[in-house]
Amino acid sequence: xxxxxxxxxxxxxxxxxxxxxxxxxxxxxxxDPAATTVESVLSLEPDPARPGQxxxxxxxxxxxxxxxxxxxxxxxxxxxxxGHQLTILDPGRACELRTRVRIHxxxxxxxxxxxxxxxxxLTQCEAQGFRRITFMADRPDVMPRWRITLxxxxxxxxxxxxxxxxxxxxxxxxxxxxxxxxxxxxTPAYLFAIAAGELGRVTKTLRTAExxxxxLNVWAEPGDVERCRYALGAVDRSLRWDERRFGRGYDLxxxxxxxxxxxxxxxxxxxxxxxxxxxxxxxxxxxxxxxDFLAIESVVAHEYLHNWSGNRVTLRDWFQLSLKEGLTVFxxxxxxxxxxxxxxxxxxxxxxxxxxxxAEDAGALAHPVRPDRYKEISNFYTLTIYEKGAEIIRVLHxxxxxxxxxxxxxxxxxxxxxxxxxxxxxxxxxxxxxxxDLAQFARWYAQxxxxxxxxxxxxxxxxxxxxxTIDQHTPATPGQxxxxxxxxxxxxxxxxxxxxxxxxxxxxxxVVREGMAELTAARHVLRWRGLRGRPxxxxxxxxxxxxxxxxxxxxxxxxxxxxxxxDAFNRWDLLQRLATDALLGAAHAEAAxxxxxxxxxxxxEDTSADPAFVAECLALPDFDTLAEQVDEVDVEALVGxxxxxxxxxxxxxxxxxxxRYEALADVxxxxxDGPEMSARALRNACLSWLTRLDPQAALAEAQFAxxxxxxxxxxxxxxxxxxxxxGAEAALAAFQQQFRHDPLVTDKWIALVATRPHPEALADVxxxxxxxxxxxxxxxxxxxxxxxxxxxNPLGFHRRDGAGYRLVATQVASLDAINPQVAARLLGAFESxxxxxxxxxxxxxxxxxxxxxKLGSPDGRDLLERxxx
Length: 869
Ligand code: 0A1
Ligand code: ZN
What we know:
By secondary structure, the chain is an alpha+beta fold. Helices cover about 40% and strands about 20% of the residues. The chain is built from 27 helices and 33 strands.
């Protein structure tokens, strides 16, 4: 795709199929951190429909050593290379292009292409990193088959891994050795991977449902191998689950996973060779929290599941990104829901949506799930593409039901296997399987912004007529002033005075079935006739529609609902609503607080409820979720009110908190079974509430001293640090010392320091940046310190004097020269700046304006332009 309009954007409408295809890629790497040479032989074939086109290949900053076409060296008049693109005059026939280039992994701080992490050599190619390794049509609709030869010094690089199946290995006689890999599946360059170095592994062999024997390996630097066992189990569970739930098998003889300490994103689904940020692989109870274990399992599943949704069926172009990402998030979420608590998983996802994705969809960086233009594709790996994309798939699932959804998926995989697909292909498969017209549904992909449903209820006591008027509206977003109505499945229930459900279907101008209305227009009216009394309505069970609801409830109604709703998610949701009313100044704020306290009391006394669920109910809506619901964000006021409410609730519940804390001690002591993790979740929630009432933080100190899991230890340390307990410094010093050689655990205490809820946390962040703990080249460290500060420390980041903004903006400028993607993500913390109150808005604008002209990368410049635009 070229920037043909000269406006700096790549446009979806400009898509053209490639004039040349690459049928086969044979690569030989002479690996060396300082200077690696890559010899490449590409079999090229012209598209007969488009004769006369030159061969154009991407190649970013490559040192070209040799170039031959069909065995003949090309002279300067036979090709042109401008540092970005290699052009060869139309050879007029299928041909073979041989090139040799030199690259420098040890100087690659962007961590894109081939780079060094510790003593390992690794690749990251999505989205457009392959072109930094050698020449290629670096676009997902070009899918060669691959043969990859790796050569390196045996002592420094004893293990040599690449995509596909191992073919052969041999010594080369001079202290070097060679391994050959073959990937028989047509695979785009963004899924290319190699990993080389001193790696150890845990391994297991299994037989797939189709009878293929597969070796599963999880690799890490030798000292970390024992901490790979949990991830290996997660690979196994993912493989089995995809067989069962989607009928998808694994298609190579080996599946390799490698953990790397330096990795920009979470992990990468390269064909047969997933490469991971070590934080999503390495775990044992002494160094990883329960949340880490669950995150590891879900990221491992995500990458594994990409083997079908992304690799076997790949993308035609990057505009289709959510076709693999939204779908794979949907699939990994189902995996976690099937294996653990569905309600808890839903709560986790909805928190992320409401807290972060809704803000993205309402801020300066809002974009459709399928954008129609972009400047820098790296900036589109967003919550909208991933999480909203997954919600849209969930909407489809809700509309058609599991069986029809599965039939649509089978069809999608069958029709598109080995191909580069579009969202239209996906929708066509589901339309065929369900017999539905999905044209209006497709608007979910085209329109940015979170839809809002305003629901008004009217009851005529004389006639018993009850009407629900439902208005749908999606706010304007950058570049999209007008929106069309979406197809929204709205679940509803009506309860009568005795708490029974009214099952009579309403008269409606929408399709209504089994408690669900399919909203398609800007307004719908549902009408029930002759009811005996005013019913109590409930909506959007399970958050089946990713929308904002405006429904007026009295506190009594909310209290009744909180007791009526059987489903755990819905009960949690009602408590969130009560807390929001208490916090955001509803007329009945005090009554809402009291009701919330009463319901929490019942919950804390209910020993039959899952303790982890009770813990979720104790966790009030976070700052981001609240900020998203007000027109103008007054940071200090919002944080202050939230703290006050927590103090008040903690005082109300103190005895119950103490008794649950004590009673759960034994179960919480260790182990990774559900009840054990649940017990720790509730204990730690209780600990936090109790610590806010005790300036000495005695309980937290005791828990810190006695802890034998990282979950307990870290929760105690957080309480000590965040409530500024007298023992905080000593505990922090002990923790630092104990784990000083473990970068992942070090990131944990650094994040706690960076999120201390106090404006003075800024000084601590600055001190850490001046210390040996700071490593600007390590994305995890940058995220732990600056990412946590900017995203999760409202009082620090939003200091009135603007020092928080200045610190982050200044760091964005220097990180931009090191790793543009890390810098751009950090800059995203300003996405909502226009909604901050004036005393914050001014300094935020100044900090952003000061960045103009200081960002060298397209990533940073694109983001800054949109933030200020
Ligand atoms: N596809 C990977 C994540 C990923 C995305 C972008 C990257 O570079 C721009 C790297 C990795 C996943 O979804 O897990
Ligand atoms: Zn993904």
